[in-house]
Design a protein that fits this description.
Chain B: One of its GO terms (biological process) is response to abscisic acid. Chain B: Belongs to the aldehyde dehydrogenase family. Chain B: Its EC number is 1.2.1.3. Chain B: It comes from Eragrostis curvula (weeping love grass). The structure holds 2 protein chains of 2 kinds. Chain A has 2 domains: about 230 residues, Aldehyde Dehydrogenase, Chain A, domain 1 (3-Layer(aba) Sandwich), CATH 3.40.605.10; about 190 residues, Aldehyde Dehydrogenase, Chain A, domain 2 (3-Layer(aba) Sandwich). Chain A contains 17 helices and 20 strands. Chain A is an alpha/beta fold. The mean pLDDT of chain A is about 95. By secondary structure, chain B is an alpha/beta fold. Chain B folds into 3 domains: about 220 residues, 3-Layer(aba) Sandwich (Aldehyde Dehydrogenase, Chain A, domain 1), CATH 3.40.605.10; about 190 residues, Aldehyde Dehydrogenase, Chain A, domain 2 (3-Layer(aba) Sandwich); about 30 residues, no CATH class. In chain B, about 40% of the residues lie in helices and about 15% in strands. Chain B is built from 18 helices and 18 strands. In chain B, the strands form 4 sheets. In chain B, strands 10-13-14-9-8-15-16 form a 7-stranded mixed beta sheet, sandwiched between helices. The N terminus of chain B is likely disordered. Classes of the chains: A alpha/beta, B alpha/beta. At the A-B interface, helix 4, strand 2, helix 7, helix 8 and helix 9 of A face helix 1, helix 5, strand 2, helix 9 and helix 10 of B.
């Protein structure tokens, strides 16, 4: 079966399954969510093995950052499903009195989820949880760059969920391209901006709404009067503790003052030595670089002529094992490649400025990131940061942690993406909020209809302006007599 | 560069994909997708490589936004009040422009455009404080002490493409939302309603801050030029064909888009309980078809579905009411231009369709007037039943049972609205649960547009993105997640080096097993 034929067949099958209505009842959705929850629980060891194979991901990260987050997503959805599915009454207002109005969520239909390689289990399952909760049929296309997880998902999902409505399509370039040519009711893509643009342009053909979870250079601004040790630990946890810097919300670079930089550097070095020992290449707690393409890319970022003498810590790598140690760089030129593209690796440049406020101009000269971080105790600076920096999310005094809060929308803005998910936002991302208005036959407003007269117009004007006397007249069928 | 109709002939230009970078190894996927996008572009035909001639306008808007002035509540309120004054002081001129462009009676112009805008601007002024207030959200104990909020912020610089049929409303309603959200805005009214476009362009600068709110005039070429630039959001109201082109052009800059398209809005007509109810229902059907821009409205009733045996009585009341309402042809709007007039007359001239004309059918090309026309059971594969009519022609399709209407509607692309006149609760439930549309309205039509609390927008072929009321504010905002922590409590188990003990502690925490956690932490439990 050619890739084209297969993509068309999958879309067709799912469309038929969706049309039968089986994905709509709460019972079906709950059964699937429970299935996913069981899968994440019973298959924990297998999932950790796959993640280790794909990324050398430490078991703790696999559990904390992927499996447990998927489980809590399922639980959150199960807990709130009935509430989400219930139509919400809204005030219809006086203009259409008497009437009742409500907003009901309905599934979009058949949706396509394209996942990424860095958190291959989480970024596949989390959107799928939302799609199922919203009552859709789903195709999941896991990233082929994390092949062990991809084939594990293809094998496990049919065992735990209804495979007539939830399918996994594995494959590389041609399978993904063919899937993107089909008509879907929504496409949810996690990845980079270049492919994001092409996804958006192919979706335009079918007028398909799209959610894009992209990346960016997440800046960390470190102010002087903070507990440097705690700050350094939190930065390290968000950077190297998240897939060795290969995460869309990883701190990409630090901005701090010239006066604080030496102390910050020293603290970071101490923290890194504590976390990963004196020979980080041997540490079992660091993920490896996903493949040799990315390894070469990161090495070339480090080896660039104007950058290589700025390395102040780390910089070691092992091509055989695809490992690169946590690397700190001081004041690399702003026009170097490492400062122009998202690093997505264990390299952390530190840029120094004279006054901390100058960091704002630097951040605003770049495209809007997925997250912006600030370490400070100065409430004025906090306020200015919140209002002056636009990003998917702004975190004060920590990094990456907002991922775990299901009450916060997770998504980008500008170059970092469009649309948000997690918690209720996942349900909303895959739903259409249908407005339903019911009117009655009492109170027929004659003034609405032709033949138009000045008297009718004046009643209509009054009603639209909220004038009570006009409304009463309108409902009583004024102007009386005549047409 | 003459374009016959407003067609955007581009997809995206390959050079702008710019996937290559000196240090990035381009993945195979990127290469493949680039190849396909290039193919789409080539299929789209020769593109006008017009230099981005509107650069200055866009630049000024961006500078106005970057200066920060659009963010203050005071500025937003001043613009909204300015719009209210504009609508009040220029009301007569607005009526005249709408009459010139579309033959709209002043009553329609007020009811459907001016009046609704006044309502929306007032609502925005009333609610602005509430809408802009950050929302506090729950935080798990694990993160204590911390606060979490959702903070709305403007997207930046917005582009609004309006449409010719509600030329004032579809320009200013989105403008109200974009301003309330704190953005700088460019509005491009449709050149097919030139008097209203000129009216807006000539006058609005006196009432709002012209450095941050601009009107751009022109046709398809200007639209294409505008899309060369980066916007923070684009709202397009119009046909699916151009909607596709706008979305494809926006993809180049990763610009999010909202599309308000059309569709064939069906009216399911079940038997009414009494003669009085039947009359009221017919009033409302006529109101939603011929009394709204002569049927040239995205929410207009496109066709009616009725049971065979109720057809005679429906027809009788329709005809008599039409006669009463439109005794003076002046009370119905005109067709916007010769091209649409010809399109509509071709729908009727179709040999397979002409025999089904039951009432009306007369046309005056000079006056661009088409009489209210009713057809009975035209072939379902004829153009009048496959394309959005957007005119004063009403096909009535008869069914054996009214319940068959659900399957009929499901077989068509999802419309902007489904209307149903019925008291049957079971049928109502089936319509809501088994069909999909932007909106469902029972026992009336079109009026949902006026309700601020209901989101207005489509689904599937009728578009995506919703606005009106607070949805307008949200459409043009980014909801930023903001989390603040302190240094007081540090959970060292977050950090490597990892060991089994730390993992077990985390398991307990993530199950919110706080007691177990504390005991383990103190070493009193494994």
């Amino acid at each position: 079966l050619t890739a084209t034929a297969m993509a068309a067949a999958v879309a067709e099958q799912l469309r038929e399954s969706f049309a039968t209505g089986r994905t709509r009842p709460a019972a079906w959705r709950e059964a699937q969510l429970r299935g996913l929850l069981r899968m994440a629980t019973e298959m924990e060891a297998e999932i950790c093995d796959a993640l280790r194979e794909d990324l050398a991901k430490p078991v703790t990260e696999s559990y904390v950052h992927e499996i447990s987050l998927v489980k809590s997503s399922c639980k959150f959805a199960l807990k709130n499903l009935k509430k989400w599915m219930k139509p919400k009454k809204v005030p219809a207002g006086v203009l259409t009195f008497p009437s009742t109005a409500r907003i009901a969520a309905e599934p979009l239909g058949v949706v396509l989820v394209i996942s990424a390689w860095n958190y291959p289990f989480l970024l596949s399952m989390d959107p799928v949880v939302g799609a199922i909760a919203a009552g859709n049929a789903v195709v999941l296309k896991p990233s082929e760059v994390a092949p062990a997880t991809s084939s594990l998902l293809a094998e496990l999902l049919p065992r735990f969920v209804d495979s007539s409505c939830i399918k996994v399509v594995e494959g590389g370039v041609s399978e993904t391209s063919e899937l993107l040519e089909q008509k879907w009711d929504k496409i949810f893509y996690t990845g980079n901006g270049k492919v994001g643009r092409v996804v958006l342009s192919l979706a335009a053909k079918h007028l398909t709404p799209v959610a894009l979870e992209l990346g960016g250079k997440c800046p960390v601004v470190v102010d002087s009067n903070v507990d440097l040790h705690v700050a350094a630990k939190r930065i390290a946890a968000g950077k190297w503790g998240c897939n060795n810097g290969q995460a869309c919300v990883s701190p990409d670079f630090i901005i701090t003052t010239k006066s604080l930089a030496p102390k910050l550097l020293e603290t970071l070095e101490k923290v890194l030595q504590k976390f990963y020992g004196y020979d980080p290449l041997q540490s079992p707690d660091l993920s490896r670089i996903v493949n040799s393409n990315h390894f070469k890319r990161l090495r070339s970022l480090m080896d660039e002529e104007k950058v290589k003498d700025k390395i102040v810590f780390g910089g070691q790598s092992d091509e055989m094992q695809l490992k690169i140690t946590p690397t700190l760089l001081m004041d690399v030129p702003l026009d170097s490649a490492i400062m122009k593209e998202e690093i997505f690796g264990p390299l952390l440049p530190i840029i120094t400025v004279d006054k901390i406020h100058e960091s704002f101009a630097l951040i605003n000269s770049m495209t809007k990131p997925l997250a912006a971080y600030l370490f400070t105790k100065d409430s004025k600076l906090k306020y200015q940061f919140e209002n002056g920096i636009s990003a998917g999310a702004t975190i004060i005094n920590d990094t990456s942690i907002h991922l775990t809060n299901p009450h916060l929308p997770f998504g980008g803005v500008g170059e970092s993406g469009m649309g948000a998910y997690h918690g209720t936002f996942s349900f909303d991302a895959f739903s259409h909020k249908k407005a339903i208005l019911a009117r009655f036959f009492i109170g027929e407003v004659k003034a609405r209809y032709p033949p138009y007269t000045p008297a009718k117009l004046s009643i209509v004007k009054g009603v639209l302006k909220g004038n009570l006397a006009s409304m009463i007249q309108a409902i009583l069928g004024f102007p009386r007599g005549g047409a | 560069m003459g374009h016959q109709d407003h067609s955007f002939s581009c997809a995206i230009h390959p050079s702008s994909l710019h996937i290559h970078s000196a240090f990035t190894l381009q993945s195979e996927l990127e290469l493949e997708l680039e190849r396909r996008a290039r193919k789409l572009y080539e299929q789209g035909g020769q593109r006008t490589m017009a230099v981005a001639g509107l650069g200055e306008t866009v630049c000024e808007l961006r500078q106005a936004y970057e200066s920060g002035k659009t963010r203050s509540l005071a500025w937003r309120q001043a613009q909204l009040r300015g719009l209210l004054r504009f609508l009040k002081e220029e009301e007569e001129a607005a009526f005249a422009a709408l009459r010139e462009d579309l033959g709209k009676h002043r009553a329609e112009a007020y009811r459907d455009e001016v009046g609704l805008l006044v309502k929306s601007a007032n609502e925005a002024l009333r609610q602005l404080g509430k809408w802009t207030t950050p929302e506090r959200v729950w935080i798990p104990l694990v993160a204590f002490p911390a606060t979490a909020q959702i903070v709305p912020e403007p997207l930046g610089v917005i582009l609004v493409f309006s449409c010719w049929n509600v030329p004032l409303g579809l320009s200013l309603e989105p403008l109200i939302g974009a301003i309330a959200a704190g953005n700088a805005v460019a509005v491009k009214p449709s050149e097919l309603s030139p008097c209203t476009a000129k009216f807006i362009g000539d006058n609005i600068g006196r009432y709002v801050d012209a450095s941050a709110v601009k009107v751009v005039q022109g046709g398809a070429e200007v639209g294409e030029q505008l899309m060369e630039h980066r916007w923070d959001k684009v709202l397009f109201t119009g046909s699916p064909r151009i909607g596709r082109a706008v979305m494809a052009a926006a993809s180049r800059h990763l610009t999010p888009v909202a599309l308000e398209l059309g569709g064939k809005c069906p009216c399911i007509f079940d038997m009414m309980g009494s003669a009085r109810e039947l009359q009221i229902a017919v009033n409302r059907i006529i109101g939603a078809k011929w009394s709204s821009c002569a049927g040239q409205a995205c929410l207009a009733i496109d066709y009616v579905l009725v049971e065979e045996r109720y057809l005679p009585i429906l027809l009788k009341v329709l005809k008599s009411t039409l006669k009463r309402f439109f005794s003076d042809p002046d009370h119905m709007a005109r067709i916007v231009n010769a091209r649409h007039f010809e399109r509509l007359s071709n729908l009727l001239k179709d040999k397979a369709v002409a025999p089904s004309i039951l009432h009306g059918g007369s046309m005056d090309a000079k006056d661009l007037y088409i009489e209210p026309t009713i057809l009975l059971n035209p072939p379902l594969d004829s153009a009048i039943m496959t394309e959005e009519i957007f005119g004063p022609l009403l096909p009535i399709i008869t069914l054996k049972k009214i319940e068959d209407s659900v399957a009929f509607v499901r077989a068509m692309p999802k419309p902007l609205a489904i209307y149903a006149f019925t008291g049957d609760a079971a049928l109502r439930r089936r319509i809501v649960e088994e069909t999909s549309s932007g909106t469902v309205v029972f026992n009336d039509a079109l009026v949902q547009y006026a309700i601020d609390a209901l989101p207005f927008g489509g689904v599937g072929q009728s578009g995506f993105g919703q606005y009106h009321g607070k949805y307008s504010f949200e459409m043009f905002s980014h909801k930023k997640a903001v989390m603040k922590r302190g240094y007081l409590i540090e959970l060292t188990l977050r950090y490597p080096p990892w060991n089994e003990r730390k993992i077990n502690l985390m398991r307990r925490l993530y199950r919110f097993d706080y007691v177990g956690f504390v005991l383990s932490f103190l070493g009193l439990r494994r």
